[in-house]
Amino acid sequence: MKYVQQVRGKWIVRVTVPPELRAIIGQRELVERDLPSDTRTREKMAHGILNRFFATIDKAREIFETRKNSPPIALSDAAKRHYSVTIAQDELKRASMPTPTDIQSEKDRALDMLAQEQREHRQTATSVINATTGFELMAGARSFDHNNRVRRLTALRASFRTGETRWIEPAVQQYIKDNHYDVQPDTRAWRDLADAFARAEIEALERTLERDRGNFSGCASDPLLTAPATEPDINSPVDTLDGKSMLLSEALSAFHNERTAGGHSLAAKTMGEHRNAVRMFKEFIGADIAVDAITKKHLIEYKNALIKTPNRYTMRFPGLTLPEAIKANAKRPEPFSTLASKTVNMKWLSHLSGILNWAQENGHIEFNPAKGVRVDTGRKTHHEPSRLAFTKSELYEIFGHSMFADRSAYGLKQWALLIMLYTGVRNSSEMARMKLEYIYIEQGIPVFDLADASKNQGSKRLVPIHNDLVRLGFLDHVEALKKRGETLLFPEWAQRPDKVNDWFNDVYLVSLGLKTKKKVFYCFRHTLATELARAGVPRELSKMISGHAPQEVASVYIQASPIKLMATELNKVKFDLPIPGL
C-alpha cells in the first residue's frame, strides 16, 4: 500500500509535505508510527491516517493560496477586533468576580476553620495561611485585577518609546494564525500590526479603568478605531467572546436539560442525533458559534454542503471534518453516495432547527434562521414537467433555419445549439464556461474535457467531438479564437449562463411554433440519449458519454481505450441535419 512502509521492523505511514507548505504545517513529512502487523487491520487504519494527512495538506494548500492572493492586513479592522475582544474579556472577568456575599461566606468559613483548629490545639502558622488564603484572594480580587490593568496600560504606553512589543506579541501571533496571514516577526508589517494592537488595547484598558470609577460612557478616540469599517467577510470566523451570547453547544445542553427536567425523558438515540447535528454544523462553520451569530446564509450554505456529504463520512473518512470529507469524496474515482435529501431535511436540518427554535423561544435569538431551510425534494408545486427528445422533424426545423446556412458566419447561437445537441451536456453552464485549453486531442480523438465543469470534480470526463462538428469547421473555429487571444469558447455566454437558454426557449422555439412545456433547451440532452439508444450504443458507453458513469470505473470493464470506443459509438449517431456540408 502506497505511503505504508516497514522501517526497522515497524510499520509506519509517511507522506512527504510539499516544500512550499512546510512552513505552514511545520514539518517536512507527516508520519504515524507503530501500525499493527496484521495486514488487514494495518491497511484499514492507514486509510484513516492518510485521509487525515491529505486533509492537513489540502488545508495548508488553501492557506498557501489564500496568502498569495490576500490583500494587505486592514490595520483598522485588526485594531477594532482586538479592542472588542479586550472589552469582552473584561466584561466576562467582571461577571465572574466574587460578590460581597461570596466574600463574607468565605470569611465565615475561614473563621470557623481557625476556631476549630484552636479548639483542637492543632493550629500552626501554615494552617492559618491555608485557612485564610481563599478569603484574602477573594477580598483582593477586584483590587488585584485593577492594579494589573494599570501596570499593563503603563507598559503598553511605554512600548511606543522603547520599541518593546513582548506585551502584545501573543495577541498578534494568534491573530496572524487565525487569519492565515504570512507575516513574519521583525518585519515592517508585523511591527505595524503590533502597534495597532497596542493602540487598541490602550484604548480598551482606559475604558475598563473608567468603568472602575462608574463611568460607562467612554468611547474610543484613536483614529484606527474610529475609521469606517471595511466590507465584512462573511466567511471569516465568527466571534463568540460576547459574554451575553449563548454558544450553540450551550444551547444544546440547555435544550436537553429542559426536555429531560421533571421526570420527562428524551430518547437516547434522539439526543445522540442532536449532538451529531451540532457537531456537524460546528465542523462546517469551523468553530463553536454563538446562536445569535448564526444567519440564514450560514444555514443555506450548510444545506448545500450536506447534499454533497458522503454517507457515513465519519466511518469512511475517519479523522476528517465534514468539509474535508466532502473534498476527499470528490477526489475518489467513484465517490461514495451522498446523504439523501430526506435525511438532510428530516434529521440534520430538522434537529438543528429544533435547537435554534428553543433558543428563539427562550430569548437568545430574535428569529430561527433555520426556519424554512430545506432541500427541495420535488414537491408537486415545484415539480418540473417531464422533457421529451426533439423529433427528426423538429430538429429539421431548428437547424434548417437560414442562420445555419453560412458556416463562416457561425457565432454563439449556432455553435451553442450544435454542441448541446452533439454532446448532451447536463446544462448550459457546463459549456458556457468551457475553456479553450480543455478542447484538445486525446489518443487521436478531439475531445471536450468537462471535468472542471461537471458535478463530480474528482472524476475525469471527456466527451468526443462528433465528426459532424469537425466537418462544420468547429476545430478551425477554436483555433481562430485562440489566435484572437480568447481563453473561453463562449466569452459572451460565460458572463450569463442562461443567455442562450432564454433565447432558445422564449424566442427561437416560439418563432418556429415548437414551444411547449416539454420541449426546451435541456431536451438536447434527451435527444442525444435517445439517438444513442437507437444507434445500438451499449448502455455503459452511452452512460459514459452522457456523464452518468465515471469513465475511470467503466474502463475497467471495457478492455479497450474508453475515449476511442466512445468516439466510435458517438459517431454512429446520425441526426441528418439540413445543414450544408453534412
Automatic annotation (TrEMBL):
Pfam families recorded: Phage_integrase
Segments forming domain Tyr recombinase: 383-570
Entries under CDD domains matching the protein: INT_C_like_1
Keywords: DNA integration, DNA recombination, DNA-binding
InterPro entries: DNA_brk_join_enz, Integrase-like_cat_sf, Integrase_catalytic, Integrase_recombinase_N, Tyrosine_recombinase_XerCD
GO terms, molecular function: DNA binding
GO BP, sorted A to Z: DNA integration; DNA recombination
Family: Belongs to the 'phage' integrase family.
Stated name of the protein: Site-specific integrase
Organism: Pseudorhodobacter turbinis
